[in-house]
Amino acid sequence: EVQLLESGGGLVQPGGSLTLSCVGSGFTFKLWGLSWVRQAPGKEDERIASIKSDGTSTWYEDSVKGRFTISKDFAKQVLYLRMNDLKPEDTAMYYCQRGEVIGERGQGTQVTVAS
Questions:
Q1: Residue 41 and residue 4: Cα distance in Å, rounded?
Q2: pLDDT at 84 (0 to 100)
Q3: How confident is the prediction for the chain on average, in pLDDT?
């Protein structure tokens, strides 16, 4: 059974930083591209970052480019999202996704950016 467990969300002030983690199990981690997807209240899902299966290539949505960094730890089977210079518009539920464009997701972790 594929499982994705996100953690690391919370309340942070504008300009602050957070690192989200996603532990994957039930599949061969190194064979899958992975993504972070977020959903703000009243808005559609938004894919914000993806990483190829071998970790050599990444993609970012324009609004997070230069602020967020996606990475994979193959030994621990963990996907990370380092988020710097957070803005109120980054407030959303963040989901880890198996697959770059579409795939299974975890239950998410809430990120709230507010002063």
A1: 22
A2: 98
A3: 96
Do the beta carbons of residue 106 and residue 22 sit within 8 Å? yes
Place of tokens 């988020």: 83
Classify residue 103 by burial, with Cβ atoms within 10 Å: 0-12, 13-18, 19+: middle
Contact predicate 70/58, CB 8 Å: yes
Tokens found for residue 19: 């690192």
Identify whether the C-beta of residue 6 lies closer than 8 Å to the C-beta of residue 21: yes
What is d(CA 92, CA 39) in angstroms, rounded to the nearest whole number? 5
Report, as an integer, the average pLDDT of 71-95. Answer: 97
What average pLDDT does the segment 12-27 reach?
Answer: 97
| Residue closest to 80 by CA, chosen among 49, 38, 113 | 49
Q: Structure tokens of 24?
A: 């994957």
Q: Taking a C-beta distance cutoff of 8 angstroms, is the pair 3, 77 a contact?
A: no
